[in-house]
Amino acid sequence: MWQKRAIALVILIVGAGIGWWVYSSQTSASRPFKLGLDLSGGTQLVYRAKLDAIKGSDVAGSMASLRDTIERRVNLFGVSEPIVQTEHAGTLAGTPEERLIVELPGVTDTEKAIALIGQTPVLEFRMLKKDADVTATASSSINELFEPAAITGKDLASAELQFQGGTGALTEPVVVLHFNAEGARIFGELTKNNIGRVFGMFLDGSPISTPVIRDAIVDGTAVISGGFTPEEAKELARNLNYGALPVPIELISTQTVSGTLGDKAVRDGIMAGLWGVGAVILFMLFWYRLPGLLAGVALLLYIVAMLALFLLVPVTLTAAGIAAFILSVGMAVDANILIFERTKEELDKGTGTADAIHEGFHRAWPSIRDSNISSMITAVILFWFGTSLIKGFALVFGLGVLISMLTAISVSRTFLLALGFNAKGSFARFFFGSGIKTYL
Amino acid sequence: MIIVRHRNIFFALTALITLIALASLAIFGLHLGTDFTGGTLAQVSYAAGRPAPEALQESLNTAGFHGYSLREASTNEYILRAGNLTPEMRSALPQTLSIGGTYPATIAQLTEVGPTIGLELRNKAFIALALVLLCILLFIAFAFRKVSKPVSSWVYGLIALVTLIHDVIVPVGFFAALGYFHGAQVDTLFVTAILTVLGFSIHDTIVVFDRTRENLRINDERNRKEDFSETAGRSLNQTFVRSVNTSLTVLITLLVLYFIGPASTRDFALTLLVGIIAGTYSSIFLATPLLVAVEKWRGRQKKK
């Protein structure tokens, strides 16, 4: 008994401590909740990578380099906490695609966001096909004349502006590309094996320099001389230094939510949460009286635990996630309702309260377990199905099912037993009774 | 047990509800949202009063929009749905929507979905639905594997599946009507709502069946002979209050979410509300009566 009471006290203190931690982390803003774009306001852009010119084995590397480049570019513009990730879209809609997802919190102008990414140059290297009819350049597209080269933009280490002696006495601004070690090796081999062929350097899809390979180049540098003005060359070198995309990308989807809309959603969500929790606790109190009160305490502990998890994992909260959390409050008391109904039945048989509580928990367990497993199945499938919005829902829903099982069962059991009723009198019966008798 | 005894009335009622929902679906049809069809969805708010629809339409037509739909929302907003934007259309969008700056407009929300993403999500939704149903069927058959008399565990699973189909048809039919009268569109949140309803409803049905399972075992242990319909009826009676109460607490939170929650999850809360009412109804008035009906039918087959 005293042991149970001690445990109950510890649970309460720990719960209050976590609650205080969550509260103070919000008031001091040391660790704010992570909000999804629909709540914080911002823009999400989804790009498709055009990988036609990339060998299958290079896809993963190219995508990683694509992600790093865009990430560097986005950070350069001072967007706070951007998310850049790649996604492999399966075969559900025809051919598989490699996608790049860019989330820019706080950027609520779609046009500006697109421009931000759009400034990143695309650098590609191609070889003129051996049987290409060069005289037909004007009529055929570049893709038909050139084939992908072994080296790609991801092998680029840096670029610099130099002035070289051009035709005549004038010096011409050129951009010198320095490849990384891997790139230098590939480029050396490429140039050695293809002496006499035309090597094309393409910027944003158009050929800017198409020299003929005269010699093997083993020092890992290539020169782009495209008739630049010094200004153009300087800008190109700077852009290339921030990173060049190894493959072109195409915008396929955008989503922008304004900050005001997001703020309102957050406020409404918090209000709905407070009212929801209050209403559920009142309902439990009126219907189940004393155990209802304890279920209410367990529910508060559940909420505190969930909020702490949101901060620690961290879970990105979306409007759907908040909805899931509020919904989960209604569902979290389900296990308690099951147990209390079972306990009441035992009491009606004339069992003493302590035994009735034990029996109630014991018998309600298989139902609680099975029904929660079915909810978990749904949560897992939803997580797989989801776009980032729905993933937020599924994650919160799944976590809610797990945590509520813990709080509703172990916490409320500890509390109930800690009270130490073992009476058969009308007093205990009233407190353990419930709303109305039902006979159907 | 009233419900089990008068099960035919409830079968008729269930059939009626299902028919109404199916009729609503057939008449109104579902309107797929931007998520699934691809295209553009813009929510524009006008702080200083919105322009007349004709004026905005003209501005949109000039900007090269066609085949779009314009809907008034709240007091000073428009919801625009259109096909995919060209870069020119996108950059001109603030100008177009504010009719050259005459009506100051802020784009509260802009979503563009490429056609392949829409198609992919549509396929994924169907797969997710099928997957949830399949997993639940397997799980129930597994959970009830030890119950074989008088009804095999597969029957429990199949009946649960029938109630689930009911629980999906009702909110879908409701949503079709909602789409017709209020312009609600089927989006990923709707699919999420339906899948959540499935999880919740099965939750409810499992609790009722679980009680039947337990009572059957107790009867067996005590060598008590009881008619299956009696056992099932008694189990239903015992779980009735719990079923109603759990649904009540969830309905309370959903009502709160619907009335004061974020605007973006309002239709979602309503769909869940309808679905969960349907789910609770089916687990009380459909699942166990069906179980009894199947058992009676089996009994008659054996006697022949």
Please describe the topology of this protein.
The complex is a heterodimer of chains A (440) and B (304).
Chain A lengths: L1 H26 L9 H4 L1 E8 L9 H18 L6 E7 L7 E9 L4 H9 L4 E6 L13 H4 E3 L7 E10 L5 E9 L1 H13 L5 E5 L2 E4 L11 E4 L5 H12 L7 E9 L1 H54 L6 H14 L1 H15 L4 H33 L2 H32 L6 H7 L8
Antiparallel strand pairs in A: 1-3, 1-11, 2-3, 4-5, 4-8, 6-7, 7-10, 8-9
Chain B lengths: L1 H4 L1 H22 L5 H4 L1 E8 L6 H10 L6 E5 L3 E6 L4 H11 L7 E9 L1 H29 L9 H30 L5 H34 L6 H33 L5 H38 L1
Antiparallel strand pairs in B: 1-3, 1-4, 2-3
Helix pairs in contact in B: 2-7, 2-10, 6-7, 6-8, 7-8, 7-10, 8-9, 8-10, 9-10
Strand residues, percent of chain B: 5-15%
Largest sheet of chain A: 4 strands, antiparallel
Strands in their spatial order, largest beta sheet of chain A: 2-3-1-11
Straight-line distance between termini of chain A: 38 Å
Task: Kindly report how far apart the N and C termini of chain B lie.
Answer: 28 Å
Order of helices and strands of chain A: HHEHEEHEHEEEHEEEHEHHHHHH
Regions with little confidence, pLDDT below 50 for 5+ residues of chain A: 435-440
Globally, the shape of chain A reads elongated
Radius of gyration of chain A: 32 Å
Would you tell me the structural class of the helices and strands of chain B? Answer: alpha+beta
Beta-strand level of the residues of chain A, as a percent range?
Answer: 15-25%
Tally of helical runs of chain A: 13
Helix-strand pattern of chain B: HHHEHEEHEHHHHH
What assembly state would you assign to the polypeptide chains in this entry?
heterodimer
